[in-house]
Every structure is written in C-alpha cells, then in structure tokens.
Amino acid sequence: MKAEIISVGTEILLGDIVNTNSQFLAKELASIGVEVYYQQTVGDNEDRLIKCFEESLKRSDIVITTGGLGPTDDDMTKEVAAKYFNQKLELHNPSWDKINLYFNKINKVPTENNKKQAYFPKDAIILENNNGTAPGAILKKDNKTIIILPGPPREMVAMFNESVKPYLINLTEDVIISKTIKVYGIGESRLEIKLQDILKKQSNPTVALYAKEMAVDIRVTAKAENEDKALSLIKPVIENIKSILKNSIYGEDDETLEDSVAKILVDKNLKIAVAESCTGGMVSSQLINYPGISSIFMEGCVTYSNEAKMERLGVKRETLNKFGAVSEETAIEMAQGVSKTFNTNIGLSTTGIAGPEGGTKDKPVGLVYIGIYINGQTIVKKLNLNGNRQLIRQRATKDILNELRLKLINM
Amino acid sequence: MKAEIISVGTEILLGDIVNTNSQFLAKELASIGVEVYYQQTVGDNEDRLIKCFEESLKRSDIVITTGGLGPTDDDMTKEVAAKYFNQKLELHNPSWDKINLYFNKINKVPTENNKKQAYFPKDAIILENNNGTAPGAILKKDNKTIIILPGPPREMVAMFNESVKPYLINLTEDVIISKTIKVYGIGESRLEIKLQDILKKQSNPTVALYAKEMAVDIRVTAKAENEDKALSLIKPVIENIKSILKNSIYGEDDETLEDSVAKILVDKNLKIAVAESCTGGMVSSQLINYPGISSIFMEGCVTYSNEAKMERLGVKRETLNKFGAVSEETAIEMAQGVSKTFNTNIGLSTTGIAGPEGGTKDKPVGLVYIGIYINGQTIVKKLNLNGNRQLIRQRATKDILNELRLKLINM
After folding, report:
1. Lesser CB count within 10 Å: N end or C end of chain A?
2. Do B274 and B284 contact (CB within 8 A), yes or no?
3. Stretch A4-19: mean pLDDT, rounded?
C-alpha cells in the first residue's frame, strides 16, 4: 500500500514553521508498513492543490493531507478534496453539535464560519477531533483515498493515533520494525566499505547508513507478518554487523554516547572528576545529561586560565612554561591532578586551541589534547579538529567521551 | 522568479529527521523575493528524482535540492541532475584537492568513493563546502537551473549563505536587506500584541517574528534599489521597536545571549566564577563560547554533590540539611562562595531538579534556583521550568545568563 503526504499551508511553504507533521506521519506510516515515496508541501490554493491530488493519486493509493481545515475562507483542503472526487458537502449534524459543545465549554459561542467545519461529503468517514474544532475525514472514490487531518500538530497527532492508524493497520498485512546500531569513530564512506557485503544484500531486512555529527547510525529494517518474525529477520544481521564493527558500536536505538559512558561508570562504580580548559564545561555537562550520574560524578573544574590549572589541579608552573598550556604534558598533569584533588578513580582533561584566534604554525586552531587518568594509568591523545570554535569544542568533547568508553570496555 | 525545493533522502522520507532544510530555504528564498509554490521530498531513487525534476522545472525556473551528495552509491542527486540535463561528469581537480586537504588535517586519507564527490559537469558552477567534504553545484540548461546542496544542515546553511544567496540576489534587480533584533523573556504571542501597530503596517519593510527556544527574533526586511536605501527604510522601524522593547532586546543579527553577556563582562573587566549543580557545566560552556573570555573567566565548578558544594564553595552543612541542596539559601551560598573562593567580582550559581526522577510535591521537577553575586550584592531567583532533563538545564542556563545581562546593563 502506497501513501503520500501533502502538507497544506502558507506558513510551511514560506518557512515560518518547521514541518513536524510530515515527519510524524512518515515515521508512523513506515512503522505500519505503508510505503511513502513522496511528500509535498503546497499553499492554500485550489488549482495547485488539485494538481497535487492528481499527481499523487496517479502514483499512490492514499493521500494524507494536514492543514487547511480552519474556519476561514483560505482554509480549503476539505472543499478541494471533495471537489476533486466530485462529492457534495452536507452539514454533518453530530459534528456541528460537537463544535457547539466545544465552545460552550470555554464559555463562548461558535461563529457562523465555524459551521463550515461541520460540512462533509455524505459518504465520508468523519474523524472526531478531541483537541480542537475541526474534524478530519476519510474520503474515498474507486480505489483511491484522501485522508484529511487538521494542521495543529497536537490535534493531528491525536487524530492519527486514535482513528487513522487503526484504520490503516486494518488495511495492511505486514508490520515494519527497525533497529538502530550507533557507531563512533568510523566515517560513512569507510563504514560502507566495511559493510559492503551486508549493504549489497539489502532486501529484507534493509540496512541503511545515516551520518550524524561525528557518528553514524546503521538502521536495520525488516518487514514481516508480525513483530516476532520481523525481529527474527533483524537479529542475525545485527549480530553480523556487531561482529564486524565490535567496539566502534557505542549504543542502540536512542542511546547516546554520554549515556553509554555514564552507564558503565555507574555500573562499575568508578568515581570521576573532570578538568576542562577549551571545552569549558561541555564534558561535565554531557555526562550530567545522564540521570543517576550523581553517584559517581564527583566534581568538574573549568580551569580556563593557567592560574586555575596550577592552583586547582596542581599543574606545575614549569610544565606550563616549558611546554605551554596546550601540550601533552599539561593534559597529563591536569587529568592526574583533578583525579588526585577529588579522590576519584578517573580524571579527564581537555586543553586546546578552539580559535578563532590563538593559533600558531606549531599549534594551529583545532589542536586539542585530551587526557584520561584511570586507576594509576594515564593516556593522552592529540586531536586535530576541523570547524569553528563551537564545533572544535563539541568534537573534542565527543572524542574524549568515546576514548573513555573504549578504555572502560577494555578494562 | 519561481523556485522549488526538493529534499532528497530516505531519512526525511521515512521521518527519521525533521526537515529543517526546507524551512530554512523557504524562509531565505521568501526574504530575497524568490517565489516558492511547492516543496517536495523524495528518496534516493533515480526514477522518482527524475520525475520530480521534470514536474518542478515545468512549473518553475529553479530547483534547489538538499541531500544525496555523500560518497556512497545511494547518494545520487548530482548524478541524476547531470543526467536530467544530459551533462557528463568530470573530475574537478580543485575539489578533489580540497577533499584531500580536509582528510589530511584530521590525519586520515580519503577513500576511493570520496572521489565521487569531486565529479561535476564541465560547465557547472562549483560551490565550495567549508564545513564538510561534498561541494555543491549550480547546473544550468537553457533557462532552467538546478542548484544542488549537501544535506547536513550546517553545511547546507553555510553554502547557501556564502554562495547561493549572493548568486540569486544577482539575478533579481532589487536588493533585500534584513536586520534582526533579538529578544529574550517575552513570548511570541505577547510580542505580537506589543508590536501590533508595527506588524500591521508591514509592507516595506516587513516585520516578522520568529520564535526560538526561549527567545524571539524580530526580522525587519526592506526591498530597495540599493543597500543604502534599504537600510534607511529599516532604521526608523528598528528604532521604534527598540523604544518599545528596551532591555528585553539582548542583541542584533548573529549576536547570541552569551555573546552579549560576555562582551559586557570583558568591557567592564568584571571577573567571574561559576558554580553549577543541575546545569552541570552548561553555563561555563556557554560563556566560553565567547572568544576572548579568558581575561575575565576565572573558574567554573561543577559541584553536583553536597560534598563538593561544601568543600569547594563553603556552603554550610546546616544550610543543606535545613533547606536542602535545591533552595534559595543554597543558591545564595554557592554564588557567594564561588566568588570568594576565586576572588572575583561576580559569582553565578545554579541548583535545581532536572529530573526525570527526584521531584517531590514541594520541589517538583523543573524547580531551579539561580543565584547571582555581584560586588557585595546577591540576588536569587526561583524558576519553574517545563521540559525534559536536557531542556530544563538549557532553559536554566539561558535564564541565568539573561538575568546577569539585565543586572549588568543596570549597573
């Protein structure tokens, strides 16, 4: 079964609002096995909307529209859909009663143009709106269906979940299930080479790569007659990918990099303290994203100045003088110092040149040292990062979290 | 001049990500007087993409695509666009050199499939990508134009601003100039009422509101035959808005809230230290976004535990026992303590319940106290914030920066 999504409304066409409705519908339709090959956005304009219906229903069985069900004259989605199917609108009394009730409840009376919202083709299935005044509807002619939903996301989402989803599930036979594997430290192109055998064999399940900032998501999607069968198709593919990528995988589905690190720290009860220079609080802030971190997160220090590095962390003045604040030696002393000061198992440190000023030939913008002290052992890593000040800081933050993760799982 | 936007990519089609690219482009195109009547989304599929090009270029002069420029085989936007125009792809050496440089910098070598990103039709205008590996391009045939841009928003936005916008403005006769005023602490609907006289008079310049997280941007846009004339249309409107909103305005154009605060601190040479509990490093991290902050940012402390609050900041045990860590009293002692410890003019503090656990009837999730000590005076403010853990922390961070800003400009 093929469907298309048509978003109707000038505010989306002109970019005044982000189209979250399309994303919601696309995701929901995929999850119940309805294929979507096109989405469109068009303004409140009869001619253009008619052309969209023509084009879409040539290619697909179902069109789902959002928007254009309001009480004013420029709201015309329902009227145009009925006209396209050559169906006449009649007053639907239960809907009109419901609109009256809605207004009574807020001590108001509906205006005459609200009545427009209660007109529907005689044979349409009316979709109740429990969050606003505009009912939706399912219009059918021959084998083609137009489902019209209101534009406000809260009304649309509720109406879809309550009425449209059950209606569509009834029409479909298969379910579609996805699992995501999350990878850090291997770029998209390199991943494609590593996984080329799996990627080429794509059919059911399919395997797709999605590049994120510094990371790649691998999504495995299967179609089957029920959830168990879909999961059993996915399982061996995921195991295969895991056997190839091993430790580069930091999580699954909604798990973040900081979640995966924080989880290990809490599970192993490893106390941690963080000393940050160029990242300026980002590493601590990421770790604290994880609820329950308080049992092992002892303290974070944003030691941006040399004085703070010496006084707070015990970095030696001679180290700073001889090697500079951005150096392997300083990163090591920061990591060791912060761990010692706060009596933790682990100390993290970052020091680097985030720019835009301050770079030299030897120490260019983007040079960052990250230090990790764990139970008596210290490692330090030199990074050369691209991007503006904020990106360099964000990338250094992700990199140290991933290095710590690798260290922890090998412990 | 009519344009259409085609978003290419399975991740948008399947609803994995929200299509912010279309919104950005729609808004930008409207601002320079390019008309957009349709937006489309299509997967990485040659036949369907060709059909989209056909349909769109029948109706419009220009098609702008986003996505599908990656190194892998399913990335095919450029190849399909060239095929549609019947143009052959050739290796563009400067682009290939640039890709090599990009990888060299991060101590990696490009894979053979990265080379695909450097192939273009001979006569295409190549658009440099300063934030990633995939260059964009402008392809032309007869009176029709296809502009292909990368999918990652950061790369796409920069490329549009640097190359595409000037190119399109050149094709139009008038110049369009925008100035943005940035407001914190007044919601969009309230702003609309405050500015209703100005908003109603919109024609040239137009005045539009754009709600951001916790803030609203007011964009004033004028169209005129040259920049000076456009600016002289904008100026009185901006002055009018400033006279109404006064201190609620924190900046103009690209200025961020943290920029505006940090700038005052540096100008007035006011030394600052930060003690964070629930925000866990976000306040420090935001301040350090500002280059040049090092002259006045003394130190940041992430004192997440009670022990850290006592040992590092001198918060009294009896205060924590009597009032709790999340209290006005603790926030005051944290702000005063961090300022005293690091000998600064200003001390900031945050303490709150970010959730999802830990809320009680008296102290629900979202309760945050922020403290500001400035030269002998301490203020504390109680916030009740909505949202998930991350949002509550981000909102508390923005709120304390704005409170500090208001304090500083009244000094």
Report:
1. C
2. yes
3. 89
Record: contact B288-A281, CB cut-off 8 A = yes
**pLDDT tens profile A377-401:** 999 999 999 888 999 999 999 999 9
- Judged by CB atoms closer than 8 Å, whether chains meet at A13 and B25 is answered as no
pLDDT of residue A319: 97
> Are the C-beta atoms of residues A381 and A369 closer than 8 Å to each other?
yes
- Do A76 and A68 contact (CB within 8 A), yes or no? yes
Closest Cα in chain A, distance from residue B141 (Å): 25
Proportion of chain A above pLDDT 70, given as a percent? 100
What are the C-alpha distances in Å from B228 to residues B208, B222, B232, B233?
21, 11, 6, 9
A154 touches chain B (CB under 8 A): no
Reported as a single tens digit per residue, the pLDDT across A93-140 is: 999 999 998 888 777 788 878 899 999 999 999 999 988 889 999 999
State the best of A19, A45, A196, A276 to mutate against chain B, taking most chain B CBs within 10 Å: A19
Residues on chain A touching B106 (C-beta within 8 angstroms): 384-386
Query: Which chain B residues are Cβ-neighbours of A209 within 8 angstroms?
Result: 72
Instruction: Check if B281 contacts A (Cβ < 8 Å).
Output: yes
CB contact under 8 Å between B41 and A40, yes or no, is yes
Q: How far is CA B93 from CA A7, B108, B127, B135, B361, in A?
A: 42, 19, 14, 12, 66
Given a contact cutoff of 8 angstroms between Cβ atoms, the answer to whether A381 and A222 are in contact is no
DSSP string, B82-113: HHHTT--EEE-HHHHHHHHHHHHHTT----GG
Cis omega (within 30 of 0) on the bond before A153? no
Q: What span, in angstroms and rounded, lies between the C-alpha atoms of A176 and B15?
A: 14
pLDDT reported for residue B106: 79
ipTM of model over 0.85:
no
B211 touches chain A (CB under 8 A): no
Angle at which helix A306-313 crosses helix A328-342, to 10 degrees, equals 40
Quick check: B38 and A48 CB within 8 A?
Answer: yes
Structural domains of chain A, ranges and CATH numbers in brackets: 2-171 (3.40.980.10), 176-252 (3.30.70.2860), 257-409 (3.90.950.20)
